[in-house]
Amino acid sequence: MVIITTRNKRYAVILGDHPLAEEWRILCQKTEQFHVEDVDICLAKGIQPDIIIETTNYDLEKKRADLLRARPLIADDTLILTSVLAVAATEAASWLENRGAGQVVGYATFYPLGERKVVELAPALQTDPPFVDRARSFLELLGKKPEVVGDEAGLVFPRILALIINEAAFAYMEGTATAADIDLAMRLGTNYPQGPLAWADEIGLDDVYAVLSGLYRALGEERYRPAPILRKMVLAGWLGKKRGRGFYRYDNGEIREHD
Amino acid sequence: MIERVGVVGGGTMGAGIAQISAQKGCQVLLYDVNQEALEKARQQIEKRLKNLAAKGSLTEGEAEEALQRIICLTDLEKLESCQLVIEAAPEKLELKEELFAQLDQICPPETILASNTSSLSITRLAARTRHGERVAGLHFFNPAPVMKLVEIVKGIKTGERCVQQLIQFVKKLSKQPVVCRDTPGFLVNRIARPFYNEALKIMGEGLADVEQIDRIMKEAGQFRMGPFELQDLIGIDVNFSTTVSVHGGFFGESRFRPHPFQERMVHSGQLGRKTGGGYYHYP
User: Fold this and answer.
1) Which CATH architecture has domain B192-275?
2) Is the Cβ pair A156, B178 closer than 8 Å?
3) Of the candidates B26, B29, B63, which has an alpha carbon nearest to the alpha carbon of residue B46?
4) Res. B183: pLDDT tops 80
5) What's the pLDDT tens digit per position in A197-222?
6) B144 inside 8 A of chain A by CB
7) Contact at CB, A185 and B149, closer than 8 angstroms
8) Pick the CATH number of B4-188 from 3.30.710.10, 3.40.30.10, 2.140.10.10, 3.40.50.720
9) A218 in contact with B at a CB cutoff of 8 Å?
10) Which residues of B touch A192 (CB under 8 A)?
């Protein structure tokens, strides 16, 4: 029997103010094996955490700045999990250069994490294989099933879903049908678990846009060009449910109307 | 209210549309050029109605009445008396254009002429008639008696009255109408393209294999089936030709570009479940 005391708890640092940050914090605390500590406190006290989890997608400058700020905390055995919705793990790892690049493993999942049984992982080109195993074990400890795939922005599920949402957004923007009819069509015509536009509202349009623009930037292919309406909605702060407005308008999380 | 419906074409879709229309109380005139095809359609409908009665979804009396409401005929002129004619002929432009030109002559101007096409332009079919305002798309999904969704497609000339009547008709069939403009792939076939295309691209880039992609889409995304399993079910050739059609309809827009590997699968003759194997093996 393992008795977990405060003393042998490990430290986890979670970076960013993405809704997933709070979910990671709760999941880590539930294991009773981690102290989730603020990055500033770690820097002040010289604590080197066991794991650093980074969560930013839309604002890549902030993402990079967050990782670089945490860089002094990286010990030789610190695992660094970084969200790879908008960049490949290889790119995020490249920012850390000689301190930590080999310890980076990318993860991709859409909000809400609590509802996802599976979280995808991808090693950067630079990643030392043992860190992939540690990332797997960490997810399993949190009750998630890891799926290790190749490294490219958005990995598998977020990439495919973001493209479906993008197509729905183009159709909506072009006046092909109303948002409600587009969602009904995809739920009833091809059995999707949610209509793509309502799904985008739940995920957050900023993250959907981050995947598309990340792929567009990385691969340079026109097929990833985000629908202009998505860009404008993100700029206007119509990010979906969390802001009360996206493709639909919300009152206390319930759809009030659609445009 | 539409009570008298003509269905043109006794194939799978035509028979299914005739069946559900009759089940919901419409008088149905089912037309096909081919007497044998009509006979087959009638048998198929009878079998399905009996199955529904056996399951208790319908009473035996209701099943019998529904069957009685369907009249099969090989004379297109007889559709004159219908308030709505739904064309469900094979997906060939010339054939459908010719049918619309004939129906336009046969039916009075207030009769709605609808096409069940999944890929052809409604505006183009309407151009063969003198009254484009009464022409629209009425896109049922296979199997038509079961699938809840019907896309009502507005061509450039389609009138609002026509759309409203079709909405009422679809509701009468206990189905869910959605209204969309006449664009390539309409809603479902267009917006579903990336589900298959991007999965193929991810596989092609060597990032994940077929089974892993299917597993992730089901377990992380809650999709009922993965993109490769679903292609096997639909038929990889059918899926490929839908993609080719939407890609062509949008003049080569790269979002719809078909994946070369999917074409290779079609070349191989491994088309999915119907051939015993596609991306997966079906012993």
Assistant:
1) Orthogonal Bundle (1.10)
2) no
3) B63
4) yes
5) 999 999 999 999 999 999 999 999 99
6) no
7) yes
8) 3.40.50.720
9) no
10) 223
